[in-house]
């Protein structure tokens, strides 16, 4: 029989999931009084919830293209965030690659999340994949069916991408 996670582990996991759903956003785009502190993933705000995160769990934050500025991303060594998920649409892939490379250079684990792919053709998705493979140092790339409109028969195995 598989061991169940301890209550301490479950609490850590719940906090990690909560933080993973947070955004890394510039305060020039939103008012803290309207959206709350976790919209910005400020290190002081995260430490109020996580302490020093003395766990094995990683804290992830999503950075939407067009809603975060370079100066809002501190060096990873000065921050509790471990992974930055750069979210973009196909027409934003060049900016996503630029931001992802900046985050890698600042010491983060990085993914690019291509959103709303059901609205793209296979050729558009492939063009994004090609650009990422050629120009990006991110660790992960994934697609999101943001509107839940892709059927199983529309999916195909991923093609190999060489870095």
Beta-strand residue fraction: 5-15%
Contiguous low-pLDDT stretches (5 residues minimum) are 1-21
Number of helices, where a helix is a run of at least 4 consecutive DSSP H or I residues: 5
The CATH homologous superfamily is called: Aldolase class I
> Which structural class do you get from the secondary structure elements?
alpha/beta
Query: What is the straight-line distance between the termini?
Result: 41 Å
CATH architecture: Alpha-Beta Barrel
Secondary-structure element sequence? Answer: HHHEEHEHE
**What is the number of E strands?**
4
Q: How can the largest sheet be summarized?
A: 4 strands, parallel
Comma- or semicolon-separated keywords:
single chain; 163 residues; TIM Barrel; four-stranded parallel beta sheet; 5 helices; 33% helix
Tell me what the structure shows.
With 163 residues, the chain is α/β, with parallel strands linked by helices. The chain has one domain: Alpha-Beta Barrel (TIM Barrel), CATH 3.20.20. 33% of the residues lie in helices and 13% in strands. It contains five helices and four strands. The chain has a four-stranded parallel β-sheet with strand order 1-2-3-4. Helix 4 links the parallel strand 2 and strand 3 (109-114). The longest helix has 14 residues, at 7-20. The chain is globular, with a radius of gyration of 17 Å. Residues 1-21 have low confidence and may be disordered.
């Amino acid at each position: 029989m598989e061991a169940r996670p301890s209550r301490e582990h479950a609490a850590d996991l719940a906090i990690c999931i909560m933080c993973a759903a947070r955004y890394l956003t510039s305060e020039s785009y939103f008012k803290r009084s309207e959206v709350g502190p976790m919209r910005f993933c400020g290190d002081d705000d995260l430490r109020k919830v996580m302490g020093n995160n003395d766990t094995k769990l990683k804290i992830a934050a999503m950075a939407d293209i067009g809603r975060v500025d370079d100066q809002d991303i501190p060096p990873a060594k000065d921050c509790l965030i471990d992974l930055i998920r750069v979210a973009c649409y196909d027409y934003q892939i060049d900016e996503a690659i630029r931001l992802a490379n900046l985050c890698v250079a600042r010491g983060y684990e990085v993914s690019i999340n291509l959103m709303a792919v059901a609205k793209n053709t296979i050729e558009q998705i492939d063009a994004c994949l090609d650009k990422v493979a050629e120009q990006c140092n991110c660790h992960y790339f994934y697609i999101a069916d943001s509107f839940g409109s892709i059927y199983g028969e529309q999916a195909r195995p991923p093609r190999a991408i060489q870095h």
